[in-house]
Amino acid sequence: HEIVELSKELGCAPQAGFLNAVLRDYVREKDMTHKLLNDLRYEDPPQGWSHPEDLCARWRERWGDDRLFDLLKWNNTPPPTYARINTLRAEPKDIEAMWWNEGVEARPAPLTWENIPAYQLESHPSLESLESFRDGKFYVQDPSTIGPVIELDPQPGETILDLCAAPGGKTTLIAQLMNNQGKVLAADISPDRLKQVEENCVRLGVTCVESLVADETLNAKLADLSIDRILIDAPCSNTGVIRRRVDARWRAGEKEIAELREIQLQL
After folding, report:
1. Cβ(45)–Cβ(72) below 8 Å
2. Rounded CA gap, 73 and 154, in Å?
3. At how many degrees (to 10) do helices 65-75 and 30-43 cross?
């Protein structure tokens, strides 16, 4: 239905009936079409797994066919949802009780740290509908993005610079580990995305964050400050997180990767 409607919006109304027929036939003949798709995945992996040819070629050269197929399959698998408990506002036992009443099924995340409780959400209603979410008692965050903050090891009373802060997952976790004591300077090139950081801080009860636009005046703003630690989550190709950022596969060309290298070094 969505593809047919989209075709009309894109000026392909005369072809809408043909598209509808093809897709309905696909549903009717799903056993045969699934076999055709599986054959295509091995005969022509970029087409079969919907990945760019140059990206597949790079991975095949680096790891061989078996690992290439594993990675392509992994990238096309829906990722789980993880929730990091905001200990500024709740303890795990309190959240577990709330989730029970809200219809959330969860289990401890497979990758956790002692002072940062996190859960994998097995099933749940819309997150925005949950009182526990609206009250800022947890933040949706993959455990892999918690690791850099662990390495940063922020301490209460310090001044921390988060140079690429939006949307604020690492920023608010830094503040959480500092127990809101000290200062976190959240910088980002996009003022609109900085608003996301500020909104998340309000929801999570984070009070030690100051947002800064990362423009040509940033160095002057930081010149007189004594900064204890800096976290740089530099812009990257996102080819390691295609499972979560499905469109990243189509933006990770050689030209973009080269440009990103320069940006990373500048940061």
Report:
1. yes
2. 37
3. 130
- What counts of helices (H) and strands (E) characterise the chain? 13, 8
Check if the beta carbon of residue 164 is closer than 8 Å to that of residue 146: no
18 DSSP 8-state letter: H
Q: Is the dihedral of CA 28, 32, 38, 42 positive or negative?
A: negative
Dist CA 119 CA 82 (whole Å): 6
Name residue 149's amino acid: V
Burial class (CB in 10 A: 0-12, 13-18, 19+), 166: buried
Per-residue pLDDT tens digits of the chain, which is 267 residues long:
999 999 999 999 999 999 999 999 888 888 888 888 899 999 999 999 999 999 999 999 999 999 999 999 999 999 999 999 999 999 999 999 999 999 999 999 987 787 899 999 999 999 999 999 999 999 999 988 999 999 999 999 999 999 999 999 999 999 999 999 999 999 999 999 999 999 999 999 999 999 999 998 998 989 889 999 999 999 999 998 999 998 999 988 888 889 999 999 999
Distance of alpha carbon 144 from alpha carbon 114, whole angstroms: 15
Is there a contact between 69 and 45 (Cβ–Cβ < 8 Å)?
yes
pTM (predicted TM-score): 0.85
- Rounded to an integer, what distance in angstroms lies between the CA atom of residue 32 and that of residue 26? 9
CA distances from 155 to 37, 98, 171, 206, 228 (A): 52, 30, 13, 15, 9
